Structures are given as structure tokens and as C-alpha cells.
Amino acid sequence: MLRARRSGDAAAAWTAYLRLDEGRKLLDASRVTVGEGVLDPFLDRARKTYESWSGIGHEPPARSGGDSTLRFPRARALDSVTVLAEPGTKGTVEVRTPDGGWRRLGTLSAGGATELPGGDGRVDAVRVTGGTGVRHLVPWFADAPAASLELPGARTDADIGGTRRVTATLGSLRPADVRGTLTVDAPEGLTVRVPKNALTVPRGSSLEVPVEVTVRPGTPVRSYDVRLAFAGTTRTLTVHAVPRTAGPDLARAGRASSSADETPGFPAPAANDGDPDTRWSSPVDDDAWWQVELEHPVRLGKVALHWQDAHPSAYRVEVSADGRTWRTAATVRDSRGGRETLGMDEPGVRHLRVRGEQRATPYGYSLWSVEAYAVAR
Ligand SMILES: [Ca+2]
Question: Which sequence ranges are marked TM in the entry (predicted)?
Fold first, then answer.
């Protein structure tokens, strides 16, 4: 099956896939164990590889009415149609035009694997007439992007003066290789490097592409949107430019306090004691806060938080020179808890406060640790 797929022999690959299915049913029914833990995962992977390549993985959920007709919610431009049928099934593939008439695309191949070009104009249904052995009917739309473009996340931090590498994953959304150039639109201050040459995404698989984001020295601290595009698909990568930090965790030597502690067993200093197993917990109060007074004023570049399960959905980090007048250094609106690192560039900071706005759970807030780092000189 895999060999046939690699050589592009669609009929042989389809026949092998059908046989694999039958073989596995026999294997399941037998008492003999063959290559337990090795054979099954291999066959699963082989199956998925074929399904992705052949188009089965792209097949719309269910054909209405149980016949071999697939209706689209709206009229669409068709790139091509894949039909997988029992070998020997005879039939004609047709599409319905907006005037309600059916137009013939072609006949089924004797081997069972048929691929036909979709022709011009928009159509709102595709069907196979004559045959009852149709197993899969997959339309490929020409009005949708030819490729997918995925990033590990919609946002990333990048040091000012440094380079951040992320990996973009391109996938083919056609029963063919997709060729194109990955293009970048980057704002002032950012240089984004991607391969300059044209890229080929093999049919039914994906291609990983390195993306290097360099933030030029002197670029202001804030978020920048980088637009990436490939074969009709665009994605935005939000780059948060943060100062480079250096030196020890300054919170460790600071004096912690809080709006209140849930119990004496979860005191404020447990969040800056360097012990990953102790934590501060607040009572149930949306506005609860934790703060630390640093030994000396610093130019604060980074705050790293480690939330316990009890975390806020919204909070902010405030800073102060004197512990009386505060300013907001970072605001988080969609916290998922866990480890969160916030970049900033705040001079003259002696006091740092994590102030809750909205609880994400029925409990209060709980922090395993809060770390603070100065901007590198
Ligand atoms: Ca701790």
C-alpha cells in the first residue's frame, strides 16, 4: 500500500488498503497475537498515511439520503473529485450546475480509484450514478486555499536584539503536491526570515518550515503582528518584543505580603521561597493580590508566574517605586494558569504586585512561585 502510494499508483494503493482492512478483521477474530504493540501502531500509521494521501481524511461527514449524492451548502468552484469504489464498480461522476442540470465529469476507473478534474463554474452537488460500490466520495474545492498553514501558537515572546525561531507547518489541501512561496509581511523593527525558494508540500503530508524572527535593538516593548501567507492561506503571528533579562531571580531576596492568606499554611512568602512545593493561597476574592518589596530599585524586564490550579482568568502586574503609587506593567485577559512569563521594561521598580481581577475557579488564587528579573545591561 505504502509502496503503491509512493509511486503514485492510486488503484494499487486503494486495493491494498481494502485488503489491509479485511486482513485486520481476520486478525482481530483470531486467537493468535501477532507483534503486539508493534504491528498495530504501524498499521494504524500506514492507514492514516494512506487516508491523508487518498483524500479519505478530507471526506465530508455523511452523504445525505444514503445515495451516492453529496450536496454542498452553497454553490462552489470544484478543483477535482476523488471517488474510491469497490474495484470493478461501473458508474458516472456528475456535478449539478446552478440551473439544476447535471454535467458529466467522467466515468469510474476499473481499479476503483478515480480522480477527475472539477471543470469550470460553480456546482452545488456531486454524485455517482450507476454504481452501488462507492465507498468514498471526496470533493476538493478550488475556492478554498490549496494549503494549510499552522503555527505552534498565535503568539510568541522575542528578546529585543535577539532571534526567536518557530516552526510553521504547511499541508496540502489538494489531491496533488502544492507548490508556492511562503511570504512574510513584518512591521518596522522586526526582520523575519523564511526560505526564499519555492516550497513543495507533498500530497497528503506536511512540510515543516523554519521561521526566524529577529527583533532589532532599540525596538520598543510591545506586540507586533507578523503576517505569513502560503498558497492562499494566511496566519498572523503576534510577537511580543521583550527586553533581554539577566541575573538572579530578584523576588527571592524580597519581602512578600498579600491582601490576605487563605490559611497560615499558605502564607505570602511561600511564593518567593524558591521551594516549588510550597504556595501562597488567597481567600475567595476576585481582587486578592500578592506583592513583594525588592531589596533595591531595578529596571524590571520579566515576571515569571507559576499558578496552582486556583488561578485568575484576568489579572494584572503592577509596579511601584514607593509602594503607594502604582502603575500597570502587564495585563492578562485570558489566563489559563500554569506558567506564565510576562515581558516588560519598567525602570525604578521597588515594589511588584500581582493583582487579581477575575477568578477562573470557585477558589481563590494560588501561586507556587513569582520570579522577577532585571533588564540586561
Ligand atoms: Ca514556593
Answer: none
266-269 LR contacts (CB < 8 Å, sep 24+): 266/366
Architecture, CATH, for domain 58-141: Sandwich (2.60)
CA atoms within 13 A on the CB side of 169: 7
CB within 8 Å of 161: residues ≥ 6 apart: 215, 216, 217, 244
Looking at domain 246-375, its CATH class is mainly beta
Ligand 1 centroid – CA 278 distance (Å) = 4
- What distance in angstroms lies between residue 292's CA and the mean position of ligand 1's atoms? 14
The predicted model scores a pTM of 0.75
Q: How far is the CA of 349 from the centre of ligand 1 (A)?
A: 22
Q: Tell me the residues surrounding ligand 1 (ion) with CB < 5 Å.
A: 270, 273, 275, 278, 369
Distance 287 CA to ligand 1 centre (A): 21
Cα–Cα distance measured from residue 279 to residue 337, given in angstroms and rounded to the nearest whole number: 14
pLDDT digits (tens, 9 = 90+) for 113-153: 999 999 999 999 999 998 688 999 999 999 999 999 999 88
Tell me the three cell numbers of residue 264.
Answer: 497560615
Residues of the chain with CATH 2.60.120.260: 58-141, 246-375
